[in-house]
Amino acid sequence: MxxxxxxxxxxxxxxxxxxxxxxxxxxxxxxxSGWFEPGDARFLVDHRYVDARxxxxxxxELVATMLELIRGAQQRLVMDMFLFNPDGSDPAKHLPVxxxxxxALIERRRQCPGLRATVLVDPIxxxxxxHWPEHLxxxxxxxxxxxxxxxxxxxxxxxxxxxxxxLLVQPWSRWPQHGWxxxxxxxxxxxxxSWLTLINFRANHxxxxxxxxxxxxxxxxxxxxxxxxxxxxxxxxxxxxxQAALALLDQEQTLLAWARGFSCDFRxxxxxxxxxxxxxxxxRLLTESRIREASVALINSAETGEKLDLALFYxxxxxxxxxxKRAHSRGCRLRVLLDPNKDxxxxxxxxxxxxxxxxxxxxxxxxxxxxxxxxxxFHCKLVRLERWDARVDLILGSANLTRRxxxxxxxxAGCELVGNEKLPALRATGDWFERCWSNPPGFQCSVPxxxxxxxxWRRYLLYRVTEFTGWSSY
Length: 474
Prior knowledge:
By secondary structure, this protein is of the alpha+beta class. The chain has helices at about 1-20, 60-70, 95-110, 135-140, 160-170, 190-200, 245-260, 290-300, 320-330, 355-365, 405, 425-440, 455-470; strands at about 40-50, 55-60, 75-80, 115-120, 145-150, 205-215, 215-220, 235-240, 280-285, 305-310, 335-340, 345, 345-350, 370, 380-385, 390-395, 415-420, 445-450. It folds into 2 domains: about 40-45 and about 55-170 and about 190-260, 2-Layer Sandwich (Endonuclease, Chain A); about 280-470, Endonuclease Chain A (Endonuclease, Chain A, 2-Layer Sandwich), CATH 3.30.870.
């Protein structure tokens, strides 16, 4: 009798675990648009560097662009962000990004009462229902639609924990609770259920904004969160317009319909469907595993003498690492610029996974440098291939090159831009990476591999185990 009950229990646990690890994906996951003309696509960057006098300097473009989109919106605005809150910030070190954007949204709604504005956030912003942030309450009062992403409908990235969470915690998720536990990101207490939900390591990790304006539609795809404690991070993004922006809106509308449980009646106006020729500049939008497939295909296509540059906050995906090794063996000129993974909002990290991956790449002869951070993070996610015939292929967005970000476990948004190296956005990207890598006078950005090298085999083994099992944030 007892043996039978144990076998039934094990079968239930195994069945629930396997189903939620491999269940069918929602329509909002793993999307890929067609190719569009890039129009006036513009590369944007936030970064910190050290000048000739040793002073920390910064350049900030992403929030200014978001404000520009908000202030120009007339019919429709969608903002889809992983972190949108002021929690964990220090007024002496961080900018009031959340309040700045909140006020801009409220003011634009006042100026244009017919504007349909939607803000979609990850549940981490309310710490999984423990507290509804004051700035979101103000936005709702101003007529802005606020939605939280239904993460439980995604596949489980940490099945060793999530199977028990689904059986023992999720059924009671609607019961009210009062917070009494310390909050790692904010001043207000949180619930035990919040902490247990956090360990699922699941997220809507997109950083997207799209809006109409007097002269058409524009959209922003980036790695930057409008989050006060992230305001000092280095990030990169691409501002797109025209049909690409409309396609971005369509992707977001699919996600919003999933989050609401019903479709919205707003549809972007259709445009010309003729794709650009293969030998002309073009751009497409990618999400989740489509970013992985495009990135691996790009790396696999790199030939002898071509220049492949990567600027990344996290690099751990085994398919990507193997592709990089093969590209180097073919004679591709590789350069990998990584965050040292030592800073996390005032806390010190141990270097996982980048230092362990860098050890592997360095042993293979691939040049690696670390971005010179000052308590913030090098939060970029960018791959750029410069081919022998002066064509350039660029992929950037919200997705770290990790299992969680690329294997349809988190929600991610990215784009791929292809064209001649003289295309302004592609030229600007190359110039930026070159400065970060080579440290010209007055612009010190990176340090050699030896500065943060970690040769401990136990740490490398820990990276491989946690990456494989999902018991990690990468």
